[in-house]
Design brief:
This protein is of the alpha/beta class and about 650 residues long. The chain is about 45% helix and about 10% strand. The protein is built from 24 helices and 14 strands. The chain has helices at about 5-15, 60-65, 100-110, 170-175, 195-210, 220-225, 230-240, 245-255, 255-280, 295-310, 340-350, 365-375, 380-395, 415-430, 445-450, 455-460, 470-475, 485-500, 525-530, 540-545, 565-570, 580-590, 595-610, 615-635, and strands spanning about 30-35, 35-40, 185, 215-220, 285-290, 315, 335-340, 360, 405, 435-440, 510-515, 530-535, 550-555, 575. The strands form 3 sheets. Strands 4-3-5-6-7-8 form a 6-stranded parallel sheet, sandwiched between helices. Strands 11-10-9-12-13-14 form a 6-stranded parallel sheet, with helices on both faces. Strand 12, helix 20 and strand 13 form a beta-alpha-beta unit. It is elongated and about 85 Å long.
Amino acid sequence: MPSLASFSTVLNILLLLTRSGAYGNEKPTATTSPSFGIRLDLPRMPYGDGTNPSTTTSPVSESLSSHNDTIPTSTATSGGAKQTASFVSSPSPGGASGATASFATHKAQSSSLHKSASKTALGATSSSIPSESGSTPSSSAKTQLSSTLAPIEETNVPQTTDKVEVPDEVINALPTEKGRALRVLFLSSDTGGGHRASALSLANQFQRLYPGTTYDLLDIWTEDGCYPYHTLVKSYKHLSANPNQWRLLYYASNSHPYEFVMNHHSMFMCERKIRRRIESYKPDVVISVHPTMNNVPIKSTREISKKLGRHIPFFTVVTDFGSGHCTWFHKGVDKVFIASDRIQKLAKKRGKVADDQLVMSGLPIRYDFAIQAEKMGDRTTEEGKAYQRSIKEELGINPDKPMVLVMGGGEGVGSLSDIVNALYARFVKQGIDVTICVVCGRNEKLKNDLETRDWGTILETDGAPKKRKRDVVYHIFHKAVRSKKIQASLDRAAKLDAKEQDMHIVHEPGKVDVVGLGFITNMADYMVGANILVSKAGPGTIAEAAAVGLPIMLTSYLPGQEAGNVDVVLDGGFGDYCEDPILIAKELSCWLQDAELIDVMSVAAKRVGHPHAAEHIVSEIAETSLRWKEQSLLGPKYLP
């Protein structure tokens, strides 16, 4: 018969496997403020098990308890993080000079507190201060502390003359305009270029808006994961090259049973190692930009918070546009930043994420696109078209011709060669003068081949490629269709094409230039100069094109996570999806001969685009993190 000790051991193991990484019974709630968009009512016990943080003393509270005149010279443990991430950044030049007016307002409000704030503004009523025995005051007697962002409204607070004087060293220790730098830890993995690109776009904004901020990029599974998690990057490279295998794995893993097993297995096997790794970076805030880096890291971050006696906020920035894996969503986060209504519905349905935890922000993209979007404005206006011409001249492209930009991802994969052949043949025979810019990425072989290709032979074969299998899965399970305006234009072009064939009309050959590009860094310039983009359905590429109002022809997608991106483009009315190079060429020739259609699609793209998404996300994350940092500096004696 099993002993009581063995039964207790089994029970403890079961409890360990089912522990949650959420806040517990109490977590921050958001309320509105007239001077700050999101206002946090910070709880007294924000940690995973509701532990009272008053047992941990901050540097500021230590100085207060000793009643000496020494001013703390440091409010956090110094020292750099352990360099195990892919890279460590250094502050970029320029500082916050380019910040928008709204962020400048926040900074002005923040800096006004330092030394100029009255001591009584930070005070609390005598009944709101915890007694030496550690008893907690009643909620009616509590009063909020002044923050670095906005004055606190004195509503429902008993008015008494007994105010607690907050010494000068407390005010001196709070974050100032020069002390608003943060240590940011991004959790990501090189499973596709979109996750790293999103992290870098956010990091750039942190350093621009909050000078002195440092950041690290950590792949927790490669560093501290067990099998099979530490093979994530290697497995992705194989599966992305075999779409059918990827489709099978994606849909099998995007289920409740798989999620339950993976969450509990990874928690049991890896959580302690991941916790030590995250703690070694000493972050002020943790940001996940990868779907597999939410459940365990949230738990680890909460345990670190409990140990340190201060709350380390955890945010998730979803880098998918139309489809999202279930592992993206966890109700234990402080906030989840999303890019579309589709992702919002998934977050609420699959992750049970509350409405006040979801922020519709758009997808974070490179700051270059925000700058170019501001300079160009509306590309359908005369000013916008004039700016396009100037960009083409800077790029060495004929400004008098329309430009088609063809992309296949960072590695230059896909059927780029067949698409370029079909486009060249169609444009020449239709008499369309155009420049075709092909982004070959790291595919040097394709770039060299384009420079030496016999285009005369391509014309003789009409650019016809080898027969390709049609992806019937998308057409069966996805109901999005092209917009009525695009379909009407295609119908008109088809009728005109049939009429010209009956009348044996031959056009004067079009003057088509094909320019092979390698791995470029000024993508924003090329998208501004282009009239049409041809690309796979990557979420970052779509978000960047939409930010500058560029119509898109999608030619492929990675099953599962990118399928919903096709729906976003078709439902938004700023592009179409086609797999066959010949049909792609026919449709694009129709678009180029219908200037009104191009303008309509451009306007539709601008409605979807969020060029300043990264700026807005960083502003909200940083201000929230600074508020938590301020609360930890004040110490438990002055917490509300």
